[in-house]
TrEMBL record:
NCBIfam families: PRK00668.1. ATP binds at residues 10, 58, 86, 92, 103, 113. Keywords: ATP-binding, Cytoplasm, Kinase, Magnesium, Metal-binding, Nucleotide metabolism, Nucleotide-binding, Phosphoprotein, Transferase. Residues 2-139 form the Nucleoside diphosphate kinase-like domain. This is Nucleoside diphosphate kinase. It comes from Thiohalophilus thiocyanatoxydans. CDD domains: NDPk_I.
């Protein structure tokens, strides 16, 4: 089924100048970019986006890192987009990410792991709404 998922290119990957290379991976996997925005998250925004991790030991570092520079946020659409994006990203910990995945190629640590992707349809809906209004999403017409 056609799905939408929220993708973030994190500050480490933006700093490495690999936005284009990461976009290529999405496109080659058949994921259409149907919304995109660059922004520098505030502590408040990053804290709210990652609220589910509030009790985790890595929460403060995660918020620090996600606010350390600009991020590129996009909505990806395609067949099984949520799972497909997770495949293209590779495992959360780059040390465990399959060869040829974004995290294997562009990330070094679990804290600075280049990309985020929604993990399920419910979270995808919530995460897309966190960053984009409906009129900022541009589904393909051709
Ligand atoms: P992300 O998909 O953005 O969701 C939460 C982030 O927390 C995760 O990617 C990692 O970058 C980061 N993180 C740091 N330590 C851990 C950990 N032990 N388990 C899961 N995520 C972690």
């Amino acid at each position: 089924a056609v799905e939408r998922t929220l993708s973030i290119i994190k500050p480490d990957a933006v700093a490495k100048n690999v936005i284009g290379e990461i976009y290529s991976r999405f496109e080659k996997a058949g994921l259409n970019i149907i919304a995109a925005r660059m922004l520098h998250l505030s502590k408040e925004q990053a804290g709210e986006f990652y609220a589910v991790h509030r009790e985790r030991p890595f929460y403060n570092e995660l918020v620090e890192f996600m606010t350390s520079g600009p991020v590129m946020v996009q909505v990806l659409e395609g067949d099984e987009a949520i799972a497909k994006n997770r495949e293209v990203m590779g495992a959360t910990n780059p040390a465990e990410a399959a060869p040829g995945t974004i995290r294997a190629d562009f990330a070094k640590t679990v804290d600075e792991n280049a990309v985020h992707g929604s993990d399920a349809p419910e979270t995808a809906r919530a995460e897309i709404a966190f960053f984009f209004n409906d009129d900022e999403i541009c589904p393909r017409t051709r």
